[in-house]
Write a structure and sequence with these properties.
The complex is a heterodimer of chains A (127) and B (90). Chain A folds into two domains: 92 residues, Orthogonal Bundle (Helix Hairpins), CATH 1.10.287; 31 residues, no CATH class. Helix content of chain A is 78%, strand content 0%. The chains are: A mainly alpha (127), B mainly alpha (90).
């Protein structure tokens, strides 16, 4: 019974990984690629590692697997956020166009030296 | 038959995922695409190490997974800072 549950969780994790990578290969734009691949692959890898934890139980290997799962769930969205910010600030625009762009207004306010107003709207310089 | 072995399908689908990431690394028009693909490749390899733990019945692959996820995270942050054209201490 434990093996069956672990197998189902492992299989769904592998399918999430595969679909995320198909999205990475097929979407037209950096931002759509990020939003397709990062969420799917984070959940998929977390499910794979959680399946390993269910299969191993509370042995040292299982505790390590739980640690890896928590670490993946914490770090992968952080790195995706940093990549999106870096991609925007390096000048890449969304391919399909947009109607409103609040982040560009914030960046222009920052460059004019209007730090207080930028801070009031939630943008912090440096982080 | 090899097709009735579940590990064949598991490792095969993960290898297809890795192949799609490498395709994006080779093809990607901008450097941000390549960095996204490298980041995703690191996360997939962590899952690969976890699957090898069950397949090989040895748990040192999980140590590899911990170390690889740490190094991939720090490397991706450094690449994002480089993409933003800033110094590391800014």
């Amino acid at each position: 019974m434990t093996e069956l549950i672990a197998g189902i969780i492992l299989g769904s994790g592998i399918l999430f990984d595969l679909f995320g990578c198909i999205g990475l290969a097929r979407f037209p734009d950096v931002y759509t690629r990020l939003q397709a691949s990062t969420k799917c692959v984070t959940l998929g890898t977390a499910l794979i590692v959680f399946g390993v934890f269910i299969s191993e139980g509370f042995t040292p290997a299982g505790i390590k697997a739980l640690l890896v799962m928590l670490f993946i769930l914490a770090t992968s969205p952080t790195s995706a956020h940093a990549l999106a910010r870096g991609a925007y600030r390096s000048g890449i625009k969304p391919k399909s166009g947009y109607v409103v762009d609040k982040y560009q207004e914030l960046i222009e306010k920052e460059e004019k030296g209007d730090f207080e107003e930028a801070k009031n709207q939630g943008a912090k310089r440096g982080v | 038959m090899i097709f009735s072995n579940p590990y064949f399908w598991a490792f095969g689908l993960l290898l297809i995922s890795v192949y799609l990431c490498l395709y994006r690394v080779a093809k990607g028009p901008t450097s941000a695409d390549r960095m996204v693909a490298i980041d995703i490749l690191g996360v997939i390899l962590v899952g690969f190490c976890a699957l090898m733990t069950i397949y090989g019945k040895r748990d040192f692959y999980l140590n590899l997974a911990i170390a690889w996820s740490l190094l991939s995270f720090i490397g991706t942050l450094a690449l994002a800072k480089y993409l933003e054209k800033r110094n590391f201490d800014d």
